[in-house]
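Technical annex, item 7. During the second reporting period the consortium partners agreed on a shared format for inverse folding records so that results from different sites could be compared directly. Each record opens with the tokenized structure and is followed by the designed sequence. A conforming record, contributed by the partner at site C, is shown below for reference.
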């Protein structure tokens, strides 16, 4: 989506090979940012010990310094992550520690410590894995996701932070939620993205090349469905998303129609205008019916599910 948007907005005449190279570079940078956020999550949890040590060493202890809870640093999920044999390699590959600002970690931990959610977490005597996951999801969304200072710091290193910020943090939250009942090994494998992602990369490359190579064909499919609207009057992001969805309809037989529809409508809620989801839904619904009636949509295997 980002590469296509840049291509259309800049009228890029880069070759397909260079566009593909740009895509692969963006994928790697997004993955790096994902692990930087994950490292910040770990650092915030670890800071519970640092904070406890500093407060207990005060010359004059206040009441709140006398009963300090360090359970966050012993969060079972965090311990499993850092104990995984693959994690040091991930840190080195993505250089995650080079992006850690200790002052930011301290500030974000203090924000967490003052929250009602953290107080409630500390009060639980026998914490379950669900409790550990819930506090990590809260930190991801409300502390990391809401930190303007962290955004400002990372924006100096990640030019697409505005887009990738949501993608990475949402991914961490989703993995935490969806794998809550998995074994420790499978859970860590999921959050450290240890599965081979070559299939996803190939899909991204194929989607990009199809959108670029079949651009005029996609335009001709869309135009009749616009009624009194001209293509150049519609939000560019909407056009990009519609073209990607239609490309999946036509050229990706194993992707179910409803999956494509729902995915791009959801993306539009985050990246386009307030009315975009209804507009995109309407256009795609018309295109899908028209192409199906003409026998141009041919789905196979998984693509037949929920068509």
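Designed sequence (site C submission):
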């Amino acid at each position: 989506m980002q590469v296509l948007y840049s291509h259309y907005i800049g009228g890029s005449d880069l070759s397909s090979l260079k566009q593909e190279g740009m895509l692969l570079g963006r994928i790697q940078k997004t993955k790096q940012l994902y692990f930087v956020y994950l490292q910040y999550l770990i650092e915030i949890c670890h800071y519970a010990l640092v904070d406890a040590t500093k407060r207990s060493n005060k010359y004059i202890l206040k009441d709140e310094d006398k009963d300090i809870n360090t359970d966050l640093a012993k969060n079972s999920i965090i311990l499993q992550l850092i104990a995984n044999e693959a994690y040091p390699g991930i840190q080195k590959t993505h250089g995650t520690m080079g992006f850690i600002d200790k002052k930011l970690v301290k500030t974000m931990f203090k924000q967490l410590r003052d929250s009602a959610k953290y107080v409630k977490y500390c009060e639980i005597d026998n914490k379950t894995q669900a409790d550990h996951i819930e506090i990590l999801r809260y930190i991801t969304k409300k502390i990391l996701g809401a930190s303007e200072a962290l955004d400002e710091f990372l924006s100096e290193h990640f030019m697409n932070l505005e887009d990738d910020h949501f993608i990475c943090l949402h991914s961490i939250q989703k993995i935490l939620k969806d794998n809550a009942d998995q074994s420790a090994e499978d859970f860590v494998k999921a959050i450290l993205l240890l599965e081979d992602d070559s299939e996803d990369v190939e899909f991204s490359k194929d989607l990009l090349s199809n959108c670029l190579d079949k651009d005029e064909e996609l335009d001709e499919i869309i135009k009749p469905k616009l009624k009194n609207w001209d293509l150049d009057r519609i939000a560019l992001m909407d056009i990009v998303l519609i073209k990607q969805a239609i490309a999946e309809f036509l050229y990706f037989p194993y992707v179910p129609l409803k999956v494509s529809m729902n995915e791009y409508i959801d993306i539009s809620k985050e990246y386009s205008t307030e009315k975009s989801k209804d507009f995109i839904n309407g256009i795609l619904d018309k295109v899908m019916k028209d192409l199906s009636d003409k026998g141009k949509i041919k789905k196979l295997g998984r693509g037949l599910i929920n068509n």
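Residues 214-304 form a domain with the N-utilizing Substance Protein B Homolog; Chain A fold (CATH 1.10.940.10). The chain has a mean pLDDT of 84. All partners now use this format for quarterly exchanges.
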